[in-house]
# Entry
Amino acid sequence: MGLETILIKLQDGGDSSIFSGMDWRSVAGFLPQSGVIIITDHNVRDIYGGDFPPFPVISVLPGEKSKSLETIAGIVEEMLKAGIGRDGFVLGIGGGVVCDIAGFVASVYMRGVRFGFVSTTLLSQVDASTGGKNGVNSKDAKNIIGVFNNPGFVICDQAMLKTLSDDEYRSGLSELVKTALIKDSGLLSLIEEHTEEIINRDTQTLATLIARAISIKAGIVESDMREKGERRLLNFGHTLGHAAELEYSVPHGKAVAWGMLQAMLFSVEKGFFKMEELERVSALFRRLQVLPVQSIDHEIVAGRIIYDKKRTGKEINFIFLENPGNAFSARVSLEELAGFLMKSGT
Ligand SMILES: NC(=O)c1ccc[n+]([C@@H]2O[C@H](COP(=O)([O-])OP(=O)(O)OC[C@H]3O[C@@H](n4cnc5c(N)ncnc54)[C@H](O)[C@@H]3O)[C@@H](O)[C@H]2O)c1
# Structure
């Protein structure tokens, strides 16, 4: 695998290094000699635990439900028992759920200890482990309790993606295509040229494409860590996708792929985007099989959006496409968005 390193310059003067194409077992070389605690989930531990560096391991139940303050409180107790002090180090080995938990607990334990990730899913390699957002869920709201804080390092080993389920893998592919659509038409062409290798999970191809996607996200977050402007583009497909995900329990990335298709249709309807480009992207989605298998009722999704967004006002920032590789954010009223959805679903 060709190793690529992406350096994120942080506003506090420090930096965070992300490695794509690195053997994850070299993680030991990045850790202090003592005071390390590993956070993972049971699935990742069962597959890779035999090669973990020799430190205490806290393993959580796989899945979104573990992203809770109860889990955090339990981990804090275990860290205290393990004698982790202010100079301790938290190593998260897992997907987006584990990275969120590990980054959050490291940020609050004794007011903050150092941390790093081995990122084990496609979604976390492309998206979740870059950008410094670490959060857990409240009973009703996702990622509502969190902090901005960057890990010292993130290791992305694409060989680990071979053990992902098909659903999890395709879910991550959707976020890879999203990054290309909002910012990099060259990456979109590369994905189109290499669909066979992508479907076959060829590590070399994935290492190169993922490194490119990470660089794009890193550039965006460096200029807008706290999501006041450009970082919003990363939400492309997410307003509608998230509503569909909640209503239909569709895997996150597949719901986002559906949301992106709708956002492109909306962009066509408003005269921003060409129909031929929409057809080109839909063909790619079909080849990569990233769309949900369930049929999604637009009226139900429209109702959900109105219900969810009522508290935040009548208008939202919506991400449109102008060309592949060129997205922009514009204010849209909930009525207009719901009206479009109802029309496009008939
Ligand atoms: N912090 C951020 O910026 C950010 C961005 C995007 C998403 N997220 C969060 O990421 C989470 C979703 O992440 P995810 O899709 O990685 O889900 P996940 O962490 O739940 O992993 C998905 C499943 O794959 C298993 N798994 C992980 N690595 C594996 C491997 N190499 N082989 C086999 N199985 C493996 C896990 O045990 C789990 O069952 C959500 O909670 C979302 O909110 C955070």
The chain has two domains: 4-164, 167-344.
